[in-house]
Design brief:
single chain; 229 residues; alpha+beta; 3-stranded antiparallel beta sheet; 5 helices; 12 strands
């Protein structure tokens, strides 16, 4: 939206966030996110260019190589698409408002092991014949929504809880969902093992205590009978 600037207006006033005076016209500059009900992201100070814009305009080979080295040395954020990376002077920075306060360098170092956990767990669930159809998640990632079926389809748009589960809730992963549905069907109740009772057994004239492996009592050996010599 643009508003005409009146020459009779006071010379000093506070501009709303994202508004700028351009050729005597008050102009609002902002982005509108598609998936956030029209949420506006104001551009208060236009001091940067997005990486995608600069790459499409074209960079000489030397500058492109330099920009790539800067990019791979940034911390790891959740949404490092080129429209969330900007040139600020000679440097690169990450600007996504929703995810810029959390980095994932330590998590990514374990990604192979995490995928191994999810794959091997699924194999055992299948051997129990408890693995249903693959569920869904916003990006369709594999090994995230295995076995949970499509009884509940969400939506589950929160990246921390992307898996629709049969309990009607969104979960972080399919293992969390399987655990929740098992508990909902029939809580697991395990009786404690019986307390082991010690049994006195004579051994070589002394009293010793023995326990069976299963925790029950051991019958003492029969008493030795004297033999006439």
């Amino acid at each position: 939206r643009q508003f005409l600037h009146s020459p009779w207006a006071p010379a000093e006033y506070t501009l709303p966030a994202g508004h700028h005076v351009n050729s005597h016209v008050l102009t609002a500059v902002y982005l509108i996110r598609d998936k956030s009900n029209g949420h506006l992201i104001p551009y208060n100070n236009i001091v940067a260019f997005t990486l995608i814009a600069v790459l499409r305009l074209g960079l000489v080979k030397q500058l492109k190589e330099r920009a790539y080295k800067l990019f791979v040395n940034l911390p790891l954020y959740e949404d490092m698409a080129p429209w969330n990376i900007v040139f600020v002077g000679p440097l690169l920075d990450y600007i996504d408002y929703d995810t810029r306060d959390k980095t994932f360098d330590a998590h990514v170092r374990k990604v192979y092991q995490i995928m191994s956990v999810l794959m091997n767990y699924k194999r055992t669930v299948k051997d129990f014949e408890k693995c249903g159809d693959k569920g869904s998640n916003p990006y369709g990632f594999s090994l995230v929504s295995e076995c949970v079926g499509k009884k509940f389809t969400g939506p589950c748009d929160d990246p921390e809880l992307p898996v629709p589960c049969g309990d009607g809730q969104c979960h972080s992963d399919y293992i969390s969902c399987l655990r929740a549905t098992v508990e909902a069907d029939e809580p697991l109740k395990l009786s404690p093992p019986p307390a082991a009772k010690p049994t006195a057994v004579q051994s070589g004239g002394a009293m010793t205590w023995e326990f069976s492996r299963a925790g029950g009592e051991l019958s003492p050996p029969p008493a030795a009978k004297p033999t006439a010599v």
